[in-house]
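debug: dumping io for the single-chain case to check the tokenizer round-trip. Nothing else runs in this session.
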Amino acid sequence: MTQSPARLALPALRALAVELAERVCERVCAVPLPGELASELAALGLPELRRRAVVTWETRAGASRIFGFGEALRLRGERGAPIADARHVVAELRDAVNVPVVPGRPRIFAGFAFDPANRHHDPTWDTFGGYQLLLPRILLEQDGEEWTGSAVVVPGDPTGADEFEAVLERALCPAPAPAAETEPRDRGLAPGAWQLAVAEAVRRIRCGAYEKVVLARSVDVPRHAPKEGVLGALAERYPTTFVFSFTAGDATWLGASPERLVALSDGVVRVASLAGSRPRGETPAHDEQLARELFESAKERAEHAVVVEAVRQALEPACDELTVPGEPQLMRMANIQHLYTPVTGHVREGVDVLDLVERIHPTPAVGGWPRCDALAAIRELEGMDRGWYAAPIGWLDFAGDGEFAVALRSALLTGGRAVLYAGAGIVEGSDPAEELAETELKLRPLRGALEQA
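debug: decoded output
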């Protein structure tokens, strides 16, 4: 049995509880974790940290990891709540917080529904809502070889050191075990019906209804692997992605996204425009052949150009300066390669990361173009509740900086089942069978992680 962190670093935990008790007031505030406690928590090892954490965020081939334990605040928007509502809530929190501690700054983790206006309803997503903002009680962060962190106190917390010590111990306890296995539910279209929906979308595109629409599908499978095993397998097999998890109730939303939606740090914004794909080759020569086909495909280049232009249009009003390369690069992952254009800029004064998230989401890469027409088509043709699939997932701090990915290559773990999601961009030249094969390729990361774990 794993030893309790409180027993591993009792003096440091006690000292932290005393300091937090002294900070009890009418404002949210935070203090750094004692170095001894951060080190002892890190020594638990990655599997144990992933198991205990309610939120995780791992990037840069394992060079950066963030684990959040317990909850000081968890705010949930109703299923129809838009990103704008979350922005207003964060603004109110920002007005009620003391200066964040650095390093180990407190961070708010946030996730959103793809389309609050979608009328399809899968009750599995009810726990997550239209958005959630989660401020962990304890944050542990790795940057290179260094581990730091912070602990948060909020209005209404206990007033004594003994009570705070108990709060901290509870925050570091493992998350509750998954609920009993549930029966599969209808989620979206069967493969044949999904191909018919693709064919209908192509017909409408040829008639000029819209230029592109992204249709997603889901697969409901039994799962026997714990979330820490799935996260570990994803981090090992896809080290260049954003490996994330967000637990709400007895369900966990997790994945390994190749696509940064937006990052903001010290006034500099970075966005990844990602669209157009081919599988990886069986040999180096085959891999290069597929890459050439991708670069030379008029269909894929046109689809990619739409995404880049949409990002440009979304960011220009918020930026004093914007850099958009004229040609895409190649982003290679273990099982797939994409066309990729990095966009950077300097934001205007007063612009924060949630402002940028609201401007950019959904990109044509996950929704389609024009945006409103594509979203209407998704609601009609897709036949399912996407929940948080292909929506923003990430974190922000109280200064307005943060980083969000697009929740792709993702799965919802609930009870004894996993619901896997994948989509494909449909344009005039799309072939339904090929698009179905593309979604199967995109489902492989989660299928493989569930098997490996």
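debug: round-trip ok. The first strand starts at residue 29 and ends at 32.
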